[in-house]
Amino acid sequence: MVTPDHFIPLLYLAGLAGAAGGGSEVLVDGYAHGSLSMTAYTVGLSCRTDTPLAGAPTLPAGVPTDSSGI
User: Fold this and answer.
1) Could you say which of 20, 46, 52, 65 is the most buried, measured as most Cβ atoms within 10 Å of its Cβ?
2) According to the lineage, what is the superkingdom (predicted)?
């Protein structure tokens, strides 16, 4: 079930993009674990496209991974 709170972040994004005088750009797009999706946008900041996609950076020591369940 989709409720209005799923769309409220889009209103914030539209307001920020309008105040900045420009549009937005997708920063992170994709799925994890088959169906969990969390698209992230940026306003007034260009995403780097000069480096090849090499996956996620290495986590600092002591930080559990996603599959740890902690």
Assistant:
1) 20
2) Bacteria
Contacts (Cβ under 8 Å, ≥6 apart) of 43: 13, 16, 17, 20, 22, 23, 24, 25
Both structure tokens of 54? 């090499």
Q: Is the pTM of this model over 0.85?
A: no
Q: Strand 24-28 vs strand 40-43: parallel, antiparallel, or unpaired?
A: antiparallel
Kindly report, residue by residue over 16-63, the tens digit of the pLDDT: 888 988 888 887 777 766 667 778 888 877 666 666 665 556 667 877
